[in-house]
Every structure is written in structure tokens, then in C-alpha cells.
């Protein structure tokens, strides 16, 4: 049987990044783009260039760095300035796509756009033609397609294809569709749009009813040959269709779908961890494919079956998705080679500098705890990702706390330019004292929204992972830290989040300086 290949269109950096608190800076976006390339996705939607100078810069940098290894896509509304800006951002990509969208449902036409059907068709045709004048790879999305009258949807799609759209993406923008109904939309388009074969049909599903993956797969069964999705299902509200679930469903049930993807599935788990680590959006333990429990068999009857024959209770092998469990792997005397091998086996691709730093962290950890598990190694790697962008680093930390003393934290921070700052604070407990001291040192007034600590592996000497969410200047920021000392992990995670606040305000300052310079040249 010959399998059709499904194009995997990743929108973690665009739709995923819109999720509150999940915004990434340019360096972080580049890091994620690199991981997506290694993962083998076909299209990376790197951002919405007109939205902000930061978005433009990210699309441009991803285009320059990875535009020869994946198709880089930029989003644009049906407006001249959007399309021109997106095209400018994509200029340096060898493989590039313009993605133009316009809402078509009656609710959006009446209340958001205040346009009638003929105006919608005219705008879509004009702007798709403009995009096609720049680029031979143009995607058109009728936003809220799942709630659009089918005959009108057919009309818009037919005219967009005639105007040059090579991919027609059908979004279920508000996650309203159900699998049978959404699949039927694709069947209807195939049967009623005369030029439909001149484009690739694509599904873009949101997860408000928890049906995003099921809806996307129903579309595949009805002929969609591109699926838009995000790592860990990241995205606004309940998120988008999860890439790892789509890919593994298509692979595991190739017999049913008759399709495959080009994704290197053993990179799914590390990519999931990377995105979780950068955004601070944690993955629930029982999440399909990449949750910590996804391959755990507790029930005795299951374990017995597995010992007889793995396939009795396992439909995918953990190693197929690069799953990192709590296997005991290395100890103090494992050398650099053994460590490098294990990092490779876990599906991580580290450059020499990051590898060296992580190896040093491993040696330090091996001095503190006897047994090092795969999950420890993964946590050490995640902890070093994107850290080059941090303005402040934790130079030293001392806390004192107990039943009859005022909890106190004394902290020393070192900045990029080697400046050292020291300060101390008291608090309700040692963690509170640490957070207060860090706020004084960085001069940032932040509110703690969420604080979580969990163990990375087994045993009393396990590393603790701390996740924090803070709000500063009205925006949400996440941070993560790991250490065998959870007070230190708390300090690292809070500092990580504060560093993101600083990076944002530095970016805003440099944009203001750029526009001042541009004004003075006029
Ligand atoms: O959900 C949606 O409709 C979108 C479009 C821009 C494709 O994200
Ligand atoms: Zn969307």
C-alpha cells in the first residue's frame, strides 16, 4: 500500500505563542524553531509579522537561520500592509509561504468585520492575488470556517484557489466542530469546489471541546493532506491540536488512515520538554504521547501481560517517541562518552558549548546524588536551554529559616556586564524571603500567580523542579528552576521569570530608540 504524506504545519510559534503567559522572546523562538527542524516538521509558522516588531524580527531570524530546512510561513490579514510586511520578513527564506486569512462565518461577517458576502469574496481574491504575486506558496484560511455556511465556504474557497491559493486551510477557530461534521466539511468541499484538486486541503482545529485532534484526524480521513498543530497542544484557551498526538495517531494507525508524516518521532518527547521548559506551560502527567505517565503500567494484570508480550498493553514503544523515564543510567564515574551517548539516545541535539555546560552540571549533580536517571539528564538539559538571554544570574544564595527565627534570604546576582548586586530580605518563609530579595535586587515589582514544586526522579535525594508564574506590568511570565535544593530551584525559577520581564522591557526600549532614530532621519 502506498501512503500519502501529510504535511505537518507547526504553529507553536504563532498560534501557540498567543496563549497567555507563553510568549517567547526571539532567542527562545529560534531555539524552538531549531528543535522543530530537527523534529522534521514541513512548515513552521514563525509568527504574525505585522503584529509587532518582535514578531517581525522572529520571522526574519527563523527565515534566515532555517529557511533552507523547512518552509517558513508568516501570517497576514487580508490587508496590503500585512502581506507586504509578512513578505519582507520571509525574504531570506529559501522555502517560504504567505498565509492570508479572512473570517467568513456570518457571526464574524456581521459583528467583527461588518462586511457582506460579496465584500468578503472580493477582499479574499484581491489579497490572495497580491500574495501570489510575491510567492508561489500561498495559504488561504477562511477564519471560523467550521461555522460558515457550506455553500458560501465553497464559493470563497473556489475563488481563493483561482486567485492563487495553493493550500486551503479550514480552521475551526472556536473549537465548535465535532469529528463527523468537520470531516463532512472536507467531503463537501471535495465534492462541490470544481478546482479543489489544485490546492492542498488543511485542517486547523482548536480544542475548546477537547476534540481538536479527533477533528483533525476526521479531516485527514476525508482527504485533508495538511494538519496545523502545536507542540503539547499549546494555544489560546484550550489550545490547538497537539502535534505529537496527530503524528503518532497517523503513524500508529497508518493501516486506517493510509498516511504517514516526515516527522522523526523519537524527537517528540525532547521537543515537548523544550517547549514546556521555555514557555513554563507544564505537560499534564497523563497527557497522551508526552505525559510522564504515558507509558507507565501500574496495574498488575497489565504488567504481567507486558512481561509475556509487550503488545498486549502497549500500542507504541516509548523509544518511538523518545520517551524519557526514570531508568537508572549513569553515575559519578560515567565519563563524557557515556554521557554524550545517553544524551543522543534521549533524542537531544546539543551543540558543543551547551553539551559542555550540561556535562559539568551532570558532574556536579553526580557529586550530590548517587544515582542519575534519564529524567535528571533531561531536566539538566532543559535548564540550560535559552539561558544565554538571561540578564541576571544567581551568583550565591543563603537562607535561614526555622520554627523560631525570621526567615531571611541573602542573595548575590551577577549581570551580563559582570555587575554584582547583593541584598537581603525577610519573608513568611524562606521561599517568600528569596522572592522578595530578588524583586529588590532587580527592581521589579511582580505578583506571584502560581508556584509548583515536583520531583524530577525517584528517591529522597531527587532533584526538585520548581515552576513559577508571575505577573509584571500586566503580563504573565513563567520560570523554571531545578536543583537538589528546592529553595535554590525556587530562586532560579523566579529569577528566570524576572529575566523575561527585563528582556521584554529592553526590547521595548530598543524599539523606542529605533523609532526615535527613524523619526529624526525624516
Ligand atoms: O484559528 C484560526 O482561525 C487561526 C487562523 C488565523 C488560521 O488561527
Ligand atoms: Zn488558530
Describe the structure.
This protein is of the alpha/beta class. The protein contains 17 helices and 18 strands. The strands form five sheets. It has an eight-stranded parallel beta barrel with strand order 2-3-4-5-6-7-8-9, surrounded by eight helices. A three-stranded antiparallel beta sheet has the order 13-14-15. Helix 3 (80-90) runs parallel beside helix 5 and helix 14 packs across helix 15. Bound molecules: 3-methyl-2-oxobutanoic acid and zinc ion. Zinc ion (ZN) is lined by residues 15, 171, 173, 204, 206.
Brief summary:
By secondary structure, the chain is α/β, with parallel strands linked by helices. The protein has helices at residues 26-39, 53-66, 80-90, 106-113, 117-134, 150-163, 179-192, 212-221, 243-252, 254-257, 268-279, 300-308, 336-345, 352-368, 374-384, 430-442, 486-521, and strands at 4-5, 7-10, 43-47, 71-77, 96-103, 138-143, 167-172, 200-205, 226-229, 259-260, 328-330, 372-373, 392-400, 408-415, 420-426, 447-455, 464-472, 475-483.
Which structural traits does this protein have?
43% helix, three-stranded antiparallel beta sheet, binds zinc ion, 522 residues, eight-stranded parallel β-barrel, binds 3-methyl-2-oxobutanoic acid
Amino acid at each position: 500500500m502506498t501512503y500519502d504524506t501529510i504535511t505537518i504545519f507547526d504553529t507553536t510559534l504563532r498560534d501557540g505563542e498567543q496563549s497567555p503567559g507563553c510568549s517567547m522572546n526571539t532567542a527562545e523562538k529560534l531555539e524552538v524553531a531549531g528543535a522543530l527542524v530537527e523534529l522534521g516538521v514541513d512548515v513552521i509558522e514563525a509568527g504574525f509579522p505585522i503584529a509587532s516588531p518582535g514578531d517581525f524580527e522572529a520571522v526574519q531570524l527563523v527565515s534566515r537561520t532555517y529557511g533552507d530546512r523547512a518552509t517558513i510561513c508568516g501570517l497576514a490579514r487580508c490587508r496590503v500592509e500585512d502581506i507586504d510586511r509578512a513578505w519582507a520578513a520571509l525574504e531570506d527564506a529559501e522555502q517560504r509561504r504567505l498565509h492570508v486569512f479572512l473570517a467568513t462565518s456570518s457571526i464574524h461577517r456581521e459583528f467583527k468585520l461588518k462586511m457582506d458576502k460579496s465584500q468578503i469574496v472580493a477582499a479574499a481574491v484581491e489579497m490572495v492575488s497580491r500574495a501570489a504575486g510575491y510567492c508561489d506558496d500561498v495559504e488561504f484560511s477562511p477564519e471560523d470556517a467550521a461555522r460558515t455556511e457550506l455553500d458560501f465556504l465553497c464559493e470563497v474557497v473556489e475563488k481563493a484557489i483561482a486567485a492563487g491559493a495553493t493550500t486551503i486551510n479550514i480552521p475551526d477557530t472556536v473549537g465548535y466542530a465535532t469529528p463527523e461534521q468537520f470531516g463532512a466539511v472536507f467531503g463537501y468541499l471535495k465534492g462541490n469546489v470544481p478546482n479543489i484538486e489544485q490546492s492542498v486541503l488543511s485542517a486547523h482545529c482548536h480544542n475548546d471541546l477537547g476534540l481538536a485532534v479527533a477533528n483533525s484526524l476526521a479531516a485527514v480521513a476525508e482527504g485533508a493532506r495538511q494538519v496545523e498543530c502545536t507542540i503539547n497542544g499549546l494555544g489560546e484557551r484550550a489550545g490547538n491540536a497537539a502535534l505529537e498526538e496527530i503524528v503518532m495517531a497517523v503513524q500508529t494507525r497508518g493501516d486506517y488512515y493510509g498516511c504517514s508524516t516526515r516527522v522523526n518521532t523519537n524527537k517528540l518527547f525532547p521537543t515537548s520538554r523544550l517547549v514546556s521548559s521555555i514557555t513554563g506551560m507544564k505537560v499534564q502527567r497523563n497527557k497522551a504521547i508526552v505525559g510522564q505517565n504515558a507509558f507507565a503500567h501500574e496495574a498488575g494484570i497489565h504488567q504481567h501481560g507486558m512481561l509475556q508480550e509487550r503488545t498486549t498493553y502497549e500500542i507504541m514503544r516509548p523509544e518511538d517517541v523518545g520517551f524519557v523515564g526514570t531508568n537508572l543510567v549513569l553515575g559519578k564515574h560515567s565519563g563524557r562518552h557515556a554521557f554524550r551517548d545517553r544524551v543522543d539516545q534521549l533524542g537531544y541535539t546539543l551543540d558543543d558549548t551547551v553539551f559542555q555546560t550540561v556535562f559539568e552540571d551532570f558532574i556536579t549533580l553526580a557529586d550530590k546524588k548517587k544515582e542519575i536517571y534519564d529524567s535528571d539528564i533531561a531536566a539538566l538539559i532543559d535548564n540550560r536551554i535559552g539561558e544565554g538571554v538571561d540578564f541576571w544570574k544567581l551568583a550565591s544564595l543563603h537562607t535561614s529559616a526555622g520554627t523560631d527565627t525570621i526567615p531571611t534570604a541573602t542573595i548575590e546576582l551577577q549581570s551580563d556586564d559582570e555587575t554584582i548586586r547583593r541584598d537581603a530580605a525577610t519573608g513568611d518563609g524562606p521561599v517568600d524571603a528569596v522572592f522578595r530579595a530578588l524583586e529588590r535586587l532587580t527592581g521589579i515589582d511582580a505578583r506571584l500567580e502560581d508556584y509548583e514544586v515536583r520531583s524530577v526522579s525517584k528517591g529522597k535525594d531527587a532533584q526538585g523542579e520548581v515552576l513559577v508564574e508571575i505577573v509584571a506590568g500586566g503580563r504573565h511570565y513563567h520560570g523554571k528552576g531545578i536543583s537538589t535544593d528546592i529553595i535554590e530551584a525556587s530562586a532560579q525559577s523566579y529569577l528566570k521569570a524576572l529575566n523575561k520581564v527585563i528582556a521584554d522591557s529592553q526590547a521595548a526600549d530598543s524599539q523606542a530608540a529605533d523609532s526615535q532614530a527613524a523619526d529624526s532621519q525624516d
